[in-house]
Amino acid sequence: MRHRFPFRRQVEFDIAVMTSQDCQEASRLHATGFTRPWSDGEINTLMNKSTVFGFIARPEGGREAGTAMGFVLAQLAAGEAEILTIAVAPDGRRQGMGWRLMGAVIRHLRAEGAEALFLEVDETNAAAIALYRKLGFGEVARRDRYYGDRNAAKSAALVMRLDLG
């Protein structure tokens, strides 16, 4: 699928099903947004589980056109799903990529008959929280002092849910 967004600049990108060949790029992307990034081995281990799936965003033209700009991993079991992680390259943020990656997950889950999608997000990540609320997620729980940064500050994890039925 091709998407065009007139935010900061026009961006054209394709979203494809993620494969084990994408793990190294996904690890690189993960490191741009998380203080404890996942290795390509950790991502590959997840990708090898039958319950885990993901989508990756690349410049228009796919793998041959350039490096990945974003990815999302999710897990589906017993009718409920969870976003395991989502990351977008810094120069790809605020251009609709997170929206489209999440949309791909939601469409896939609805096609699979999932009833609900859960995720956890750091309470300090205002951009992500705004995206999730726009998608229809609501806060269902809070885990105080869940996330820590290098300065030992602790922030809460918000647990959010989207009903898919």
**Global shape:** globular
CATH homologous superfamily classification: Gcn5-related N-acetyltransferase (GNAT)
As laid out across the biggest beta sheet, the strand order is 1-2-3-4-5-6-8-7
* Class derived from helix and strand content: alpha+beta
Biggest sheet record: 8 strands, mixed
Number of helices: 4
Parts with pLDDT < 50 across at least 5 consecutive residues? 4-8
The CATH architecture category equals: 3-Layer(aba) Sandwich
Topology of this protein?
Layout: E1 2-6, E2 10-17, H1 23-31, H2 40-47, E3 52-59, E4 70-77, E5 80-88, H3 97-111, E6 116-122, H4 126-135, E7 138-148, E8 154-163
Parallel strand pairs: 5-6
Antiparallel strand pairs: 1-2, 2-3, 3-4, 4-5, 6-8, 7-8
List keywords for this structure.
40% strand, Bact_Acetyltransf, 4 helices, transferase, alpha+beta, single chain, globular, Aminopeptidase, 25% helix, 165 residues
Walkthrough of the structure:
The structure is a single chain. Residues 4-8 have low confidence and may be disordered. The protein has 165 residues and is an alpha+beta fold. The chain has one domain: Gcn5-related N-acetyltransferase (GNAT) (Aminopeptidase, 3-Layer(aba) Sandwich), CATH 3.40.630.30. It is 25% helix and 40% strand. A hairpin with a 2-residue loop joins strand 4 (70-77) and strand 5 (80-88). It has helices at 23-31, 40-47, 97-111, 126-135; strands at residues 2-6, 10-17, 52-59, 70-77, 80-88, 116-122, 138-148, 154-163. It has an eight-stranded mixed beta sheet with strand order 1-2-3-4-5-6-8-7. It is an enzyme of class 2 (transferase). Keywords: Acyltransferase, Ribonucleoprotein, Ribosomal protein, Transferase.
